[in-house]
Amino acid sequence: MDLHWTSTVYAILAFVILYLLLNKFAFGPLFSIMEKRRQLVLEQMSMAETARKQASAQMEEQKQALQEARKEAYEIIEKARVTSTKNADDIVQAAKNEANRLKEEAVRDIESEKDKAIASLRGQVAGMSVMIASKIIEKQIDEKSQEQLVDQYLKEVGSK
Predict the structure, then answer these.
(1) Of residues 144, 125, 36, the one with CA closest to residue 136
(2) What is the DSSP string of 32-49?
(3) Which CDD domains match (predicted)?
(4) What share of the chain is helix, strand, coil (3-state, %, to 5)?
C-alpha cells in the first residue's frame, strides 16, 4: 500500500509542477490572449453600439432636416400662392381703376364734345336766327317798300 500512496503523492507533485509550468508558460499567455480577445470583442461591441447610436442620431437629424425642408417648401409655396393671389388682385384692381379712369375720361370727352356741339349749334342757330331775322326784315322792308311803291305808283297814276 505504500506504493500506492507514494505514487499518488508523486502524481500530485507532478500535477502541481505541471500546473505551475502550464500556468506560467501556457495558461498565462492563453488567458492573456483570451482576455485581449474579450477586450477586443467588448471594444467592437462598444464601437458597434456607438456607431448604431450615431447612425440613429443621424437618421433622426435627417428626418428632422427633411421635415424642416418640407415645412420650408410648404411655406414657400404658401407665400408664392399668397403673393400670386395678391398680385392677381392688384392687377384686377389696377385694371378696374384703369377702366374707371378711361370711362371717366371718355365721359369727360363726351361731355366736352357735347358742350362743343351745343356751343356750335347755338352759334349756328344764332347765325341762322340772325339770317332768318334779316330775311324777314328784308321781306318786311321789301313789302313795305313795295306797298309804298304801289301807293306812290297809284298816286302818280291817279293824278294823271
Answers:
(1) 144
(2) HHHHHHHHHHHHHHHHHH
(3) ATP-synt_Fo_b
(4) 100, 0, 0
